[in-house]
Amino acid sequence: MPGLSDVETVGVLGERADDLAAFVAEHDRDAVTGDASAVTDADLVVVDGESALYDLVRADADAPVLALGDVPGVPSARWNRRANAMTHAFVGSAGVHPAPLLSVRADGETYRALADAMVVTAEPARISEYGVHAANETVDTVRADGVTVATAAGSRGYGSAADGPVVAPGVDAVSVVPVAPFRVDQSNWVLPLPTDLTVERETADVVLLVDDREVATLDHDTTVRIDHGGTLPVVTTPETTGFFDS
């Protein structure tokens, strides 16, 4: 993978990709457009927004990525500061932060997640029962709408909104939070990987969500194994936010 000082091709992804491609061309780089799979071989990928970033992760990209917009827990530059951030990346005056990914395995399929994985009832406000397992122990069995497992980045997003603990970057652990638990005093946890989630009782259809997408319907007794999934190189510049920035 070339260093940022060797940027010649720049993939652009997101709703305003045309604007980004025009900026790339103005700075004598080759813009690569298309869907996430089309831009994965670029020297640098610039994504507009959280959804585009998740698409890139699903496409198994390993190129450095500069995120634009409000992306909780991930270094990102505001849209109105994109010109300075992109210029820093083009000329090599930018850093790279390795953002941890999750490997999420269920029913023989493996998915990559940047923020979180969640098992949840397909119909809102329908409680099911789930097991949480880590370090060769059963941590708890919970009755809830679902359970989410979040990386440090994800713990600043949905995990935080669900009153889960925030995991600082560099901590080798995940934030595990029941979603709308039946017990008001239900615990949440910071756990090591691998962590397993099991569907203990199927009172309604249960689905697996990885980042912002539903990927599978789960049967009773299904185990979802969540483990280390490598890292995504995220570009940092003077314009990008810090982890604890609002």
Protein described:
The structure is a single chain. With 246 residues, this protein is α+β, with helices and mostly antiparallel strands. The chain has 2 domains: 4-93, Rossmann fold (3-Layer(aba) Sandwich); 102-230, Tumour Suppressor Smad4 (Sandwich). It has helices at residues 17-26, 36-39, 50-58, 82-91, 152-155, 158-161; strands at residues 9-14, 30-32, 44-48, 65-68, 76-77, 95-106, 109-113, 116-121, 128-134, 137-150, 174-181, 189-191, 195-201, 206-210, 213-218, 223-236. The strands form 2 sheets. Strands 6, 7, 8, 9, 10, 11, 12, 13, 14, 15 and 16 form an 11-stranded antiparallel beta sheet that branches. Strands 2-1-3-4-5 form a 5-stranded parallel beta sheet, sandwiched between helices.
* CATH level-4 homologous superfamily of the largest domain: Probable inorganic polyphosphate/atp-NAD kinase, domain 2
Portion of residues in beta strands equals 35-45%
- State the CATH architecture of the largest domain: Sandwich
Task: Supply the number of structural domains.
Answer: 2
CATH class of the largest domain: Mainly Beta
| Proportion of helical residues | 10-25%
What is the ordering of alpha helices and beta strands? EHEHEHEEHEEEEEHHEEEEEE
CATH topology of the largest domain: Tumour Suppressor Smad4
User: What is the radius of gyration?
Assistant: 19 Å
User: How many β-strand runs?
Assistant: 16
The number of distinct helices, counting runs of at least 4 residues, comes to 6
For the biggest sheet, the summary is: 11 strands, antiparallel
Classification by helices and strands: alpha+beta
Mean pLDDT: 92
Distance between the termini: 32 Å
Which segments are poorly predicted (pLDDT under 50) over 5 or more consecutive residues? none
Apparent shape: elongated
